[in-house]
Design a protein that fits this description.
With 287 residues, the protein is of the alpha+beta class. Helix content is 20%, strand content 36%. Strands 2-3-4-1-13-16-15-14 form an eight-stranded mixed sheet. The chain has an eight-stranded mixed sheet with strand order 6-7-8-5-9-12-11-10, covered by helices on one side. β15 and β16 form a beta hairpin. The longest helix has 11 residues. It is globular, with a radius of gyration of 18 Å. The model has no long low-confidence stretch (mean pLDDT 95).
Length: 287
């Protein structure tokens, strides 16, 4: 298999209260709603987890998905919370604007040695804020996943998925598909890994021509293929093809075709209004 020209796209969070999350991501982190989509039934690729019900997807970030790593907020109607495991390490953001907003809203914050200021989303997802201007146009610098065996993870992410190793030590390594995109940090932890019910999914875009060879390469080594190459439809938008894999610890990885995703992920000017409308009319979260 030839080299994979990949692009880091987003990480998926399952959320229990859209109103609280809308406040956190917009008013505390300062992200923008890039698009909001509603679905009447579960996703064929289990994008919303193992739930066959009405759900929504809200993409939030600091700029267009073409050039920024963003967060996908997945909301399952009628599910108010998810048990949090220890598989997700956190998102690191470089910004001089977040902590003043934290102070303005008296939002809880904790200093963590070597990692910056920790703020936690309403569902328990960790964000580490380093108070300095971002080196690129995207303040999101890295996403951290915890693993049980660093060498096994290195072999999977570097040798099989062909991510470049940027730096490493005996506890963690940082990888990327290149450029100024957000990096992936893999950290080995001593306690047993528990993905619980809040487990997420990281997504990358690759050219559609690279999807079948990647599928075959993973299959050849007996890697976990959660969903073979399938197509997904979004009402009124582009169709994309996706391949869903899992690393040795079960971390879900989505490889979507670059061509379809660029069309699908165009910023919606009315994304904020659309999210607010559905929060207001949500029968499970009436105030």
């Amino acid at each position: 298999m030839s080299a994979i020209p990949g692009r880091a796209l987003h990480y998926v969070f399952k959320i229990g209260d859209r109103a609280k999350n809308a406040f956190f991501f917009r008013q505390i982190l300062g992200m923008k709603v890039l698009r909001h989509e509603e679905f009447k039934e579960g996703c064929d690729a289990e994008c919303n987890g193992p739930y066959d019900n009405r759900w929504s997807k809200t993409m939030v970030g600091y700029g267009p998905e073409d050039s920024h790593f963003v967060i996908e907020l997945t909301y399952n109607y009628g599910v108010s919370s998810y048990k949090m495991g220890n598989d997700f390490g956190g998102v690191t953001i470089h910004s001089t604007e977040i902590l003043p907003r934290v102070a303005k809203h008296s939002y809880p914050v904790t200093k963590v040695a070597g990692k910056g200021s920790l703020i936690t989303s309403p569902d328990g997802y960790k964000f580490y804020v380093i108070e300095q201007p971002p080196a690129s146009s995207d303040p999101v610098q890295s996403v951290e996943l915890n693993v049980s065996n660093l060498q096994s993870s290195r072999k999977y992410w570097h040798e099989l998925l062909q991510m470049q190793v940027l730096d490493e030590n005996n506890q963690s390594l940082r990888l990327s598909y290149g450029g100024n995109q957000a990096s992936l940090q893999i950290t080995e932890i001593k306690e047993p890994l528990d993905r619980a019910k809040a487990y997420g999914r990281i997504a990358f875009a690759i050219p559609s021509a690279k999807q079948p060879p990647l599928h075959e390469a993973v299959k050849a080594v007996g890697g976990s293929i959660l969903k073979p190459l399938i197509t997904l439809d979004t009402p009124g938008k582009a169709t994309v093809s996706v391949l869903i894999l899992a690393d040795p610890d079960g971390h879900e990885i989505c490889f979507v075709d670059e061509e379809g995703f660029r069309e699908l992920s165009q910023v919606e000017p009315d994304g904020d209004q659309s999210l607010d409308k559905y929060i207001e009319k949500d029968p499970f979260q009436q105030k």
